[in-house]
Design goal:
- A hairpin with a 4-residue loop joins strand 1 and strand 2.
- This protein is α+β, with helices and mostly antiparallel strands.
- Helix 3 crosses helix 7.
- Strands 10-3-11 form a three-stranded mixed beta sheet.
- It has one domain: Alpha-Beta Plaits, CATH 3.30.70.20.
- It contains eight helices and eleven strands.
Length: 259
């Protein structure tokens, strides 16, 4: 499952502070035009990427993550995908250029021919390549490990799209209407799975986790990887788990068992 992605030119990714500031101001002006009136993009994230300091709601003592049991994830089941689309106001593929924040993929063991079905989304890396290449700081990682995009300063350059080894980011090509208040989006910006940060900050589960549980599958476990008493941390410590593209040493927040 190795993919080669072209790397952005170094001089673009390593902008000086003054250059970053200019791009940020310019991008904010563009975002103000393209976004729905009254939508406040960054407030729901409860973080301040420009200063590197997270506000209340994002603590470095927490590392939110998911553990996906491939043995319980049935081929052809798209409950998690449907829930994500509904929760975040995505079209679910009815618009050809619309984003898909979570998708089902099939992997095959070459030696045995065994196939498995897995949900694939932003892996919320501890060392996110998307953050490294972003020239404006729009791609950022919260203190609790959730990787997000600040639409106010995203200039749509799509360097993060190219840098992501999981193909987990999408570019919004079309004007958007009837957006969800908790999930603001904007034409000309990049987006991807947020782990339903608006729900997590209210003490709720991501939509895909709830849908999988309600359907009786129980294939997705969500919790604090840093808390040894949490169910997810206990399972990761007790059973073999894998990261997709472990060779990249990104320390992903999404883990898989049974692969």
């Amino acid at each position: 499952m190795k993919h080669d992605h072209p790397a952005p030119e170094k001089n673009v990714a390593e902008q000086t502070p003054s250059r970053r500031g200019f791009l940020g101001v310019a991008a904010a002006g563009i975002a103000g035009i393209l976004l729905a009136p009254g939508v406040r993009l960054i407030e729901i994230a409860q973080a301040a990427p420009a200063t590197g300091q997270a506000s209340t709601g994002a603590s470095s003592q927490v590392r939110w993550g998911m553990l996906i049991d491939s043995g319980k994830c049935a081929s052809g089941c798209t409950d998690c995908v449907t829930a994500c689309n509904t929760e975040n106001g995505l079209s679910g593929g009815t618009l050809p250029t619309d984003s898909q924040w979570i998708r089902k993929i099939e992997i095959k063991e070459i030696r045995t021919g065994r196939t498995q079905s897995l949900p694939m989304m932003c892996q919320h890396c501890a060392e996110p390549p998307c953050v490294d290449v972003c020239p404006t700081g729009a791609s950022f990682k919260r203190a609790d490990g959730i990787v997000l995009v600040d639409k106010h300063i995203c200039i749509g350059c799509r360097y993060c799209v190219m840098a992501c080894p999981y193909k987990a980011r999408s570019f919004v090509h079309e004007p958007l209407h009837d957006q969800k208040t908790d999930v603001p989006r904007g034409m000309g910006t990049v987006e991807g799975c947020t782990l339903c940060v608006h729900k997590v900050d209210r003490g709720e589960m991501p939509a895909c986790v709830t849908a999988c549980s309600d359907a009786g599958h129980g294939a997705i476990l969500f919790g604090d990887l840093n808390n040894p008493e949490s169910e997810i941390a206990k399972r990761v410590a007790s059973y073999p788990t894998r990261q997709i593209r472990e060779d990249l040493n990104l320390n992903t927040g999404v883990r898989y068992s049974g692969i």
